[in-house]
Amino acid sequence: MRTRPLVTVLIDTYNCGQYIEEAVGSVLAQDFPAEQREILVVDDESTDDTAERLRRFGDAITYLRKPNGGQASAFNFGLEKARGEFVAFLDADDYWLPGKLQRIVEAFEEHRDAGMVYHARSDNSIRVQVRFKTEGCRCSRDFFRRTPRSC
C-alpha cells in the first residue's frame, strides 16, 4: 500500500484570488485517483482574497502561506513540503486540460529513465515530450520527476 502520494501538484500564488479556484478545480477534475496525489498551494503572502477562496476546497488541498519572497522562493518552499515521487507545477492563473495528469504519469511509467516530462498544448490536445537525465536539464515549470537537485 502506498504511504505517500505518487504526484504532488504544486500551485504557487500571489494575489491570484480571481484565478485560484479555476486552477485548483482543474486539478481536482483530473481523471486521476485522489489518493495518489496531493495538492499544495503555496501563497507568497497574498493581500487579496486568495486564502478565503481556497477555504472551500477544505482537506482536498494543503494551503501553505509564507512571507513574500517571489515565485522561485514559493516553489522552493513547496518542494521542501512535497511528498510525491513526481512534482507538477501549476501557476495560480493557469489551469489544466482534462487528462493531463494521467498522460504525464503514463509517460514517466513508459520511460523509466526519464528525468523530466513536459508538454505542449495545441488545439486542446496535450503533446507529451520526454527528456532523459543524460541529456542535460533545462528545467520546465510544467512537470518533472522529483530527483534530488537533478536540475
Describe this protein's structure.
- The protein has 4 helices and 7 strands, in the order βαβαβαβαβββ.
- It has 151 residues and is an alpha/beta fold.
- The chain has a single domain (7-145), classed as Spore Coat Polysaccharide Biosynthesis Protein SpsA, Chain A (Alpha-Beta Complex), CATH 3.90.550.
- A 5-stranded mixed β-sheet has the order 3-2-1-4-7, with helices on both faces. Strands 5-6 form a two-stranded antiparallel ribbon.
- Mean pLDDT is 84; it is low at 134-141 and 146-151.
What brief labels describe this structure?
single chain; 151 residues; alpha/beta; Spore Coat Polysaccharide Biosynthesis Protein SpsA, Chain A; five-stranded mixed beta sheet; two-stranded antiparallel sheet; 4 helices; 26% helix; globular
Short description:
The protein is an alpha/beta fold and 151 residues long. 26% of the residues lie in helices and 29% in strands. The chain has 4 helices and 7 strands.
Helix segment tally:
4
Please summarize the sheet with the most strands.
Answer: 5 strands, mixed
- Average pLDDT, all residues: 84
Give the class-level CATH name. Alpha Beta
Helix content: 25-40%
Oligomeric state: single chain
Which word captures the global form? globular
CATH architecture: Alpha-Beta Complex
Q: What strand order characterises the main sheet? A: 3-2-1-4-7
Strand fraction: 25-35%
Order of SSEs: EHEHEHEHEEE
Topology diagram in text:
Elements: E1 7-13, H1 17-28, E2 37-43, H2 50-54, E3 62-65, H3 71-81, E4 86-91, H4 100-110, E5 114-122, E6 125-132, E7 143-145
